[in-house]
Amino acid sequence: MSDESNCIFCKIVDGEIPSAKVYEDEDVYAFLDLSQVTKGHTLIIPKVHQKDIFNLNPDVAAKLFRRVPLVAAAIGKAFHPAGLNVLNNNGTLAGQSVFHYHIHLIPRYDEKDTFTFSFKSHAEDYSNEQRSAIAQAIAENIKGE
């Protein structure tokens, strides 16, 4: 079976599985995450199946990302959060559990939110030369459009 035939998000888009729809157009579907990490936690997905950021078609990405501020602003007007996390997990190690590309919009209300997200700085682990070599390795692998 293909990824699409087993994909819960494709089934949501097709209406086979119910969802709390927030927004829909010809390319994008947004709905409440069942977990509701915080009130208004919303997922935005392309209607066409795309596995992750590594496989995301640039045209699909452009259509999807164009809707992110629209939905985020609506969350802001509806619930007046103090902030909002825009989050995307790619691959199992990064926490991706549904392998249909999606963006989480997680409203933040106060320090008591159950959602925790933090970075540990490793700035002192790298010299300027090492950072330059890392940047160069990435830059060399960027393909022009």
From TrEMBL:
Where is each HIT domain found?
A: 8-116
**Which one of the record's GO molecular function terms can you name?**
catalytic activity
Histidine triad motif (motif): residue ranges: 100-104
Biological process according to GO? nucleotide metabolic process
PROSITE patterns with a match to the protein in the record: HIT_1, HIT_2
- SUPFAM superfamilies associated with the record: HIT-like
Q: Where is the active site?
A: 102
Supply the PANTHER family for this chain.
ADENOSINE 5'-MONOPHOSPHORAMIDASE HNT1, HIT FAMILY PROTEIN 1
Q: What is this protein called?
A: Protein hit
User: What is the native source organism of this protein?
Assistant: Sporolactobacillus putidus
